[in-house]
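Hello again, I could really use a second opinion on something today. I've been staring at a protein lately and its backbone has me curious. You're getting the sequence in one-letter code plus the fold written as tokens. I'd be grateful if you could look everything over and explain what you see. No rush at all, and the record is pasted right below:
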Amino acid sequence: MRIPTVATTLFAVLLTSTAASAREPSLVGTWTLTAADDLHPDGSRTHGYGEAPKGRLMIDAAGRYSLQIFKSERPRFALGDKRKGAPAEYESAVLGSSTHFGTVSMDAAAHILTFRIDSASYPNWEGTEQKRRFELVGDELSYRVPATSDGVVPISVWKRVK
């Protein structure tokens, strides 16, 4: 008689865990950037990385991530050598990109993503933990980056690659 009890218990556990995981959203996968906007203190919104930003976000099952955002309109270096760029070319290259990697976790109930940044193109972010308010609707993920010193809040919107 123990076998039906064990089997019944096992079935109930599997059913419960399957139902719970079916409801829990997942960030795992590859995402393509669809928007990188700046929300200004006056409520206006501009395109922080140009009209057609490019980007990729990859998250594995362990929560390791790699993120790259680029402004499409970045000019090429005139001499074709990044070691011999003009100051304006360096400025455009730095301000026209944002990259970092580390681990990310999600508190679905609170709608908070926590990025633990190991390394970043902006060195001040390295070794930091950033909490970002997010929305995940179907295959669209959007979140707000912490405000800059002038109060601008960057907003990133991603679409899951099928």
Q: What stands out?
A: The first strand starts at residue 29 and ends at 39. The longest helix spans residues 2-23. Confidence is low (pLDDT under 50) at residues 4-21.
